Amino acid sequence: MKRIGMLTSGGDCQALNAAMRGVVKTLYNSKEQVEIYGFLNGYKGLIYSKFQMLTGKDFSGILTKGGTILGTSRTPFKTIQDPDENGLNKVEAMKQNYYKLQLDCLVILGGNGTHKTANLLSKEGLNVITLPKTIDNDLWGTDMTFGFQSAVDIATDAIDYIHTTAASHRRVFIVEVMGHKVGWLTLNAGMASGADIILIPEIPYDLDKVIDKIEERDQRGSGFTIIAVAEGAISKKDAKLSKKEYKKKLEKMPHPSVSYELAAAIQEKTGREVRVTVPGHMQRGGSPCPYDRVFASRLGAEAGKLILDNQYGFMVGYKNREMVRVPLEDVAGKLKSISPDASIVKEAKLLGISFGD
Amino acid sequence: MKRIGMLTSGGDCQALNAAMRGVVKTLYNSKEQVEIYGFLNGYKGLIYSKFQMLTGKDFSGILTKGGTILGTSRTPFKTIQDPDENGLNKVEAMKQNYYKLQLDCLVILGGNGTHKTANLLSKEGLNVITLPKTIDNDLWGTDMTFGFQSAVDIATDAIDYIHTTAASHRRVFIVEVMGHKVGWLTLNAGMASGADIILIPEIPYDLDKVIDKIEERDQRGSGFTIIAVAEGAISKKDAKLSKKEYKKKLEKMPHPSVSYELAAAIQEKTGREVRVTVPGHMQRGGSPCPYDRVFASRLGAEAGKLILDNQYGFMVGYKNREMVRVPLEDVAGKLKSISPDASIVKEAKLLGISFGD
Amino acid sequence: MKRIGMLTSGGDCQALNAAMRGVVKTLYNSKEQVEIYGFLNGYKGLIYSKFQMLTGKDFSGILTKGGTILGTSRTPFKTIQDPDENGLNKVEAMKQNYYKLQLDCLVILGGNGTHKTANLLSKEGLNVITLPKTIDNDLWGTDMTFGFQSAVDIATDAIDYIHTTAASHRRVFIVEVMGHKVGWLTLNAGMASGADIILIPEIPYDLDKVIDKIEERDQRGSGFTIIAVAEGAISKKDAKLSKKEYKKKLEKMPHPSVSYELAAAIQEKTGREVRVTVPGHMQRGGSPCPYDRVFASRLGAEAGKLILDNQYGFMVGYKNREMVRVPLEDVAGKLKSISPDASIVKEAKLLGISFGD
Amino acid sequence: MKRIGMLTSGGDCQALNAAMRGVVKTLYNSKEQVEIYGFLNGYKGLIYSKFQMLTGKDFSGILTKGGTILGTSRTPFKTIQDPDENGLNKVEAMKQNYYKLQLDCLVILGGNGTHKTANLLSKEGLNVITLPKTIDNDLWGTDMTFGFQSAVDIATDAIDYIHTTAASHRRVFIVEVMGHKVGWLTLNAGMASGADIILIPEIPYDLDKVIDKIEERDQRGSGFTIIAVAEGAISKKDAKLSKKEYKKKLEKMPHPSVSYELAAAIQEKTGREVRVTVPGHMQRGGSPCPYDRVFASRLGAEAGKLILDNQYGFMVGYKNREMVRVPLEDVAGKLKSISPDASIVKEAKLLGISFGD
């Protein structure tokens, strides 16, 4: 008999359900007796012992369903060790609930923040297996995360839509793509949709270079320019500020995000009409794309296998087209970002895409 | 021999190309000799005689292509009779170019503003045929406009995406749908995606009623609420202001649109997390949906037939499932809005949707 | 208190769930107490008293879900009055189960066959409300049926896909679209996807005219031709046969459908490479399109209203953009087919589409 | 100055245009003067010197366009060394045309057959660069081919559509997926869409095992079963036949493909209703998915770089997430198939999917 606790934490994304279904199908298809405890709304469910017993039926038909049947929430790692508003020690509470329910392990699906807490619980002696969930694809130790390709598809659709209207109106269009710290999503969606300029956090941009590209396109008669901008894109000037100074600057901005700031700057310098579109949370939603369904199912199956083998303390990852188990301590607290020298960046430049650098 | 001038004006939308292809195919398939003059970027092309001669090849493969191969721009009717910055009389210029090119007629694709100018040109003695283009579906004299159903599809997708993330995070989500004056797009996309609350310009809302609905859903355990809000949604209080006062109020708002204002109000009154998503210009872009491709092609064919019959001064419309010709003067300056007593509104209410009224 | 029996019958299609949700939401939102008996797998469930009690939860989240949560099956009308293999009188059995459960009415969702039986039950004294379900759009008494637009979307996608491969390989491609008796689906999908030839049951074709069109395209340098063929397309020659003779001929055909027969004939006469693609049952599946979701929800709401008003013996239909109630006896046994003189056919011809006539 | 010949050969697929655009953009963005000779309809264009001079404009807007702007055709390798029907030595003709046009190199996009001929031309002394195009993903030397992921998306959609109708009607449904020799496409689409049984050429199946799975599902109350079958799926019995014997058997089959044969066998043994759907050529068509657009663009950029570096005799491939150059002789004549022991197969089995083995 295995008692499995399961939870999804952090921003939701596509294929969370597919991944959980993969774990559970693998366990049910084994000879083990299995009980699944689904903790509700992320770590909160574990902290306050809010859970549901789940059966096979709960996992039927969810392969293609977006979101998470368990609900999710953000419980920032920097607050995890502080007591809650009632003085409860949250880490202790999670441990107690784990032992009270006599769990054999926790399956935790989440991104960077989630993995810090997962690693902490593992160090505290709980049996933990994690699965790499994030549309940002910025988890260390895995080439790919589920949710990413689905988000690329949606962001690409968004820029495709904008493309026809930008061309018809001869406008500069900025599409803001999710990604505060890394540019994987913006880079891939931008390349897929034929964006002319791609601005990502890893490669600070120079406004003049951005404008050069717009004008070069004008001179060639293209008449419009598409700019894919990551939420965390930053100018070379701002990149020289301290984190604190930059945060202050952001707070003072009259615009809700850097895209609007950039739009205003381009408009001012070129006199051109610039528009901003922000698909926003749409990028996390909807049915997972086929790639993510297969990928998340495979990760889930491997997690199930680890549980059957009593192997804990790992994230299931994907490296060089092989499923791998990565120690949680190697994952926690690291970020997988795009190197400005990466082959994909060079290829994008060969294709004529400007990074404003 | 027929010399046809053609132009697309106002905000672009899906199926403009399909409609033009319909006109041109019909003319080419007739026994007439035909020359097509494509004026660039809306009325500007006609004013400043910027055009391209188009041949069959230009219209091949564009049935499914978004945007407009002619480009478009907004030339507000209220400025059309004023001279331009160089003192040029724009109406006179259009007439002169029309006669200089010895055109037999103008085919003009556009929405409400476009039709006012088209009607003026018709009254000035030019032969004009128009086609009803707008994602807003607010043109008088036709049950349907092309672009509308494609925009419904995109806005519905947007709310579908938001649905899974709203449910997973137990949030109130506002999706702002295009439509400053009418709510057709918001109402249809909202009903198609299962929105719980739909706010449209035609039915001013009461914030308390909106909050009642959110709380009713909470009490039933739904935990999240989707609100589809038209750009021009307005509260009962604001609806009592004069146009001028309301405009002033909007300008002073700290938020870029009424959706953010509404979000702030709900958040303040309920303490709940409220998020806003604005698909924006995406709603005008991309390949037209099959409905619009068929519909725009049919309108184009009927326009071609009118030209072959030398029947001018009409918009081609669609009433009670019949193609009709509507005198331009009947179309210009009128708005087709949703009656609060319309059967579709009543049905939406039967389904449990709140309009906040 | 109202006791409502509900069933879906005939081939499944998109928006069956949306329609049922519409009925049930309307009833639950009224002041009536309501019990919903969902009969399983079409009339069989009513005949053999296989049903499930359904609650609000069963109808939550199904607006966008394809298929039918009740299951369906075909129970041909011509067999409905014969006893089953155990000698059971099926009509009597349905009546007895209706009375035993003390039902106030039956809500029946189905197409042409389904309506014959529904009308019979109504004449036998049961309270019946029906909703017009079919991808064929061939129900008398309504301008539109739900499922139709979703099927158009899928069939159009299919032809769009084929378009690029046909053009690249310079082939004649036949896409067989569903529709044994009527051509609505083929005509709309064909027009939406730019098919060059459209063959439908209502307009028998002449093989030579089909080949003329292919060769005309060759001479113009197009190099490929797309033919959208309804399952029930028929040549002028075959249209002269008696039903019986034609059926015999079909049975002797070496090919699984008329499309393959046509392909072989074109290949033989022109020496060209001809390929056939049959999307088949795909056309009934998947999530309903936004149009169908709104339309089916509206029909459902109107059905709910009829029940609350104790108005029975009607199909809820849609005429000239108004929701209408159509007496069941007016619907049963009639077919809404395309007139060869219909405006849409003429427009298609203006666009250069050949019907082979 | 570089003179580049370019051709696409074999079955068309998505992202051919994206890949060519990648090559050409890279060359145009370099300091080299470039002339592009586009040979029409595959090797035939090179053999018979049918070509078009292409400019930047020809490659604008084709990133998202399906098919190939050059046209394609199959010129089987086993016939390439035979003279044509007029006695022309085809290999000699290609060489002569290459030299006559003073080409610096040939860029050839194709799959397995194409690579055999490309390798031959390379051995004959021509400068050749190839790009791995096939929806089958069966090219040796690269982890991925473009077209594959787009085809997975379409085949998955197809099975998704069938899913709702299969469930509603409680049927066994067979969806035949492209792939005569390898099962990559079937396996991925099957896993993505939750197929219950997946039959691929690499793992011969046992009919009884297939039926066991169907009956196991029945007993669990699922009531329907989805089988994804590759075109080249083969039973264990047939796998023992010689190639010649099996070919003979296939020719004698009353059904057009193994799927129909399998359907008949299941129907006979179980008495259940079994339906077959064949999306067929749809799988090669339409706009490439975002993954393929990025991937093909990157491959194209790398090919451009090789040309600028005068590096010939290679296919550009992708191994372990790195772009690599693979000697043509290593690619030609080999097949990348699925090992029955592959991790993805094992994971699929953990998820409960039967391969009938």
From TrEMBL, chains A, B, C, D:
Residues annotated as the enzyme's active site: 136
EC number: 2.7.1.11
Subcellular localization: Cytoplasm
Domain Phosphofructokinase residue range list: 3-306
Domain of life: Bacteria
Gene expressing this chain: pfp_2
A Gene Ontology cellular-component term: 6-phosphofructokinase complex
Function: Catalyzes the phosphorylation of D-fructose 6-phosphate to fructose 1,6-bisphosphate by ATP, the first committing step of glycolysis.
UniProt record similarity statement: Belongs to the phosphofructokinase type A (PFKA) family. Mixed-substrate PFK group III subfamily.
Binding-site list for ATP: 11, 74-75, 111-114
Pathway(s) it belongs to: Carbohydrate degradation; glycolysis; D-glyceraldehyde 3-phosphate and glycerone phosphate from D-glucose: step 3/4
Residue numbers binding Mg(2+): 112
InterPro entries noted in UniProt: ATP_PFK (IPR022953), ATP_PFK_prok-type (IPR012003), Phosphofructokinase_CS (IPR015912), Phosphofructokinase_dom (IPR000023), Phosphofructokinase_III (IPR012829), PKF_sf (IPR035966)
Catalytic activity: beta-D-fructose 6-phosphate + ATP = beta-D-fructose 1,6-bisphosphate + ADP + H(+)
MF-aspect GO terms: 6-phosphofructokinase activity; AMP binding; ATP binding; diphosphate-fructose-6-phosphate 1-phosphotransferase activity; fructose-6-phosphate binding; identical protein binding; metal ion binding; monosaccharide binding
Entry binding sites for substrate: 134-136, 171, 178-180, 231, 275, 281-284
Primary location: cytoplasm
Quaternary structure, from the entry: Homodimer or homotetramer.
Keyword check for Electron transport: no
Cofactor(s), names only, from the UniProt record: Mg(2+)
Protein name: ATP-dependent 6-phosphofructokinase
Organism this protein belongs to: Acetatifactor muris
